[in-house]
Design goal:
mainly alpha, 138 residues, single chain
């Protein structure tokens, strides 16, 4: 289990700022008051005013997100859809969990989601397509 925990922690650390800038402003209004207060306090301790994060990320924030995912892509390599080869593993779901909120918030047909799925030669679009069967429980 240690390897999965390490990868999960690593992907979270790599993508935390991306998720904060792109997703958090949309989630904040829907949080329960105790969760909202805790999240804002935690961000404030890091010098971030969570209530002032823009709903519409700047082009620079999108570019930084693409760069972040480019770093993640290097771990996988160009030839594989999945981290471990032919079949999805925990690592693939951890990566997908970092970008799926973008599709949920902006929509599958949005220019933002289309951009994400095209990053790194379409790697993230291929990954998300390959994992579609796992998105709902039957």
């Amino acid at each position: 289990m240690g390897l999965y925990t390490t990868f999960g922690d690593t992907i979270s650390a790599q993508t935390a700022e991306m998720i904060l800038m792109l997703v958090f402003p949309h989630v904040l209004p829907h949080m329960l008051p105790p969760s909202r207060a805790y999240s804002l306090k935690t961000l404030a301790a890091g010098g971030i005013d969570g209530e002032k994060l823009p709903l519409d990320p700047s082009p620079e924030q999108w570019t930084k997100a693409e760069t972040t995912m480019g770093g993640v892509a290097k771990w996988i390599g160009d030839d594989s859809t999945f981290v471990s080869g032919e079949k999805p593993s925990f690592a693939d779901f951890a990566i997908a969990a970092s970008i799926r909120p973008i599709r949920l918030l902006w929509g599958a047909e949005s220019k933002e989601w289309q951009a994400v799925t095209s990053w790194q030669g379409g790697k993230w679009g291929k990954l998300m397509k390959a994992l579609e069967g796992y998105e709902t429980v039957q």
